[in-house]
Automatic annotation (TrEMBL):
InterPro entries in the cross-refs: Dgk1-like
TM stretches of this protein: 12-32, 44-67, 73-94, 115-142, 162-179, 186-205, 217-243, 255-276, 288-305, 317-334, 340-358, 370-392
Keywords: Membrane, Transmembrane, Transmembrane helix
Organism: Oceaniferula marina
Protein name listed in UniProt: Uncharacterized protein
Amino acid sequence: MGFICLSFPWLFQSVLAVQILACSAVILLLVIRLSNLRNSVGSALFSVERLSIGELLFPAAVAWLFTLSWDQPVLYCISLLLLTLADSAGALAGSKLGKQYYQTAGASKTLEGSIAFFITAALCTALPLYTLTHLPIAQVILLALNIALFTTAVEGASGHGIDNLLIPIGAFLLLDYYTGLSGHQLLIRSTALMILLAVLLATHHKHTLNGGAILTALLYSFAAFTLGGIPCLLATILLFIRHIIVQHRLTREQVFVHSIDVILAISIPSLAWLTLGRGQSLGYTESQFGFICTLAIIIYMLNTGTQKHLHQKRPNMWPGMFLTVLVLTPSLFIKVPMQHYLPVLLIAPVLAWLYFHWREPTGQATIYHWIKLSLLAAIGSIANMLITLVILS
């Protein structure tokens, strides 16, 4: 199916036609799966017993990708090749050769499958760029390595077929952004991505992130650097260092494995500000400050959450205040007026106190703990930025 969709830029002149085709495909899949046809036509078309969300996301991803890239057929084909060939190569290598497993969102994946995905993704990116564009060979290689590493992390971190949407759309957006960069800018981003991955892997004995969480943390840190620059990356690193220090001080019985849930809980409210800045709904400096303030609030809540995990009856608020101030220090590089720090320093301890009393003192953190953390962080960061931008500006 993926190879057929590769011909769409030359078969269809209208975006609407592809969108209608995708909607029809989704409806047909639902009819087959949810009716008696699943025992006849459905058994011939599909080899799985249950409906995978990936089946429904594939036509939606193709339509979305075609809409974004209707005038860039090369980028369309590369993005779809990553899903068609690299994903298949990873699945095949994982099932036939896989021996080293790691946990991700709702599934187990193999290191061998991820390596096969990476190699295939690099080739799927490099060959079309080299033969169909006028980019220098050095830039093609850097682009291929970046896209391959990025999509490998996406594939490894996602589950339940969600990669059918995230891989092609994420690859296209990254390609569209990166092809406009100079070789020097691309080299900086490539180096940052490699260093971040190396740090996460080199410290895997010191932190408690599982495989999926490591790859998601890589994507999060890279997004913070790409969208917010060095100040946002420094704030992210400080949060990670705090995690390593805390895990080192806990006993073996008190330590538990962190999954993708905690990374998503941190990334959703914080990256929202950088996204607003990229979409020019907010100034660049304001979006950076919003991101850093959100992490400052989160690190305060994580500190009191750890105290609740250790069954303390009352939270000790002073260490959290120190951590909040520490995370705020990278914002000095963006020259924020000093009075703008006051709201976050007042809001953070209130939310940390609320989180301490809202969080259940269970041994293993559940997804509900992280939902509460993310919700409070979102509320606190919005309140902080409203006060900062409306009242203090």
